[in-house]
């Protein structure tokens, strides 16, 4: 089948979000200027560059009637955010934080999660996350479409859980990273294999 986004797909569910998959999930923690913590998952997320290290996530929420999400508002106002990785065992906690809740709600507390201050930025992080990236905002880019915004940040500090290091390497098999497939479907990293370098 072929379709154009403009004309539609005529399927019961939009397949687009399921095509680029699996997508890693950034569990973004922020703090409002008034000191209210916020935590929300974003699967439009990835590493952009290694030196200096830079990451991006983008927010899309047409249900907000022109109001941007609390995460973007906090990043805009404070210039910082923290990316917490999500492991399989935290999947239900993550779902709690994905709800549309009032701005004064502390999602981490609601989901029964502990937070601690970051080291390099004024922002909370999840100490139980497999890893956390402390980021300073470098660009906030409005994207085409309703309530589409991309945040780009430079990574200033990196936390790694000590129990996830094996022979000096970050071991994905030890925590089963959670990833988004689209629709209501997710997956986790369980099988890891190595390929030899390709030959010219």
UniProtKB/TrEMBL annotation:
Superkingdom to which the source organism belongs: Bacteria
GO MF annotation list: FMN binding; oxidoreductase activity, acting on the CH-NH group of donors, NAD or NADP as acceptor
InterPro entries: Flavin_Rdtase-like_dom (IPR002563), Split_barrel_FMN-bd (IPR012349)
Residue ranges of coiled coil: none
Domain Flavin reductase like: 18-177
The name this protein goes by in its record: Flavin reductase like domain protein
Organism listed in the record: Tritonibacter multivorans
